[in-house]
């Protein structure tokens, strides 16, 4: 019988300890047949702690100046059909299109779920 690969890092060197499977490379522990929990770093929340998902509508809660432009995204601007970016290194984790402005990225800390 072969053991499954680690669901977190895909290592093939997993081993059993009692009723748990353990990965020696990333120290992840799980029960066989258990669905892996979503990593907390992949969850994006708005300014009030509500979990956001792709396709949500959000409202801007602060005037946001646009770099390289004299335009401003005003408080209360509603943005529909957002797309979440889980690997955003600069903190801009929402990709969207704002009417009158165009495509841009927002930080989730400046929006609330509509």
Report on the structure:
Helices cover 0% and strands 29% of the residues. The mean pLDDT is 88. It folds into 2 domains: 1-35, N-terminal domain of TfIIb (Single Sheet); 57-113, Roll (SH3 type barrels), CATH 2.30.30.40. It has strands at 15-17, 20-22, 29-31, 58-60, 64-65, 72-73, 78-79, 83-84, 94-98, 102-106, 111-113. The chain is elongated, with a radius of gyration of 20 Å. The protein has 114 residues and is mostly beta strands.
Dominant shape = elongated
How far apart the termini lie comes to: 50 Å
Across the major sheet, the strand order is 1-2-3
Query: How many DSSP H or I helices?
Result: 0
- Under CATH, the homologous superfamily of the largest domain reads SH3 Domains
- The residue ranges in which pLDDT falls below 50 over 5 or more consecutive positions are none
- The CATH topology of the largest domain turns out to be SH3 type barrels
Query: How helix-rich are the residues, as a percent range?
Result: under 10%
SSE ordering: EEEEEEEEEEE
Under CATH at level 1, the class of the largest domain stands as Mainly Beta
- What percent strand? 25-35%
Largest sheet: 3 strands, antiparallel
- Specify the structural class: mainly beta
Tell how many strands the DSSP assignment holds. 11
- Give the C-alpha Rg: 20 Å
Q: Give me the CATH architecture of the largest domain, please.
A: Roll
Family: Belongs to the YjdM family.
Domain Protein YjdM C-terminal: 44-114
Domain Protein YjdM N-terminal: 2-30
Protein name: Alkylphosphonate utilization protein
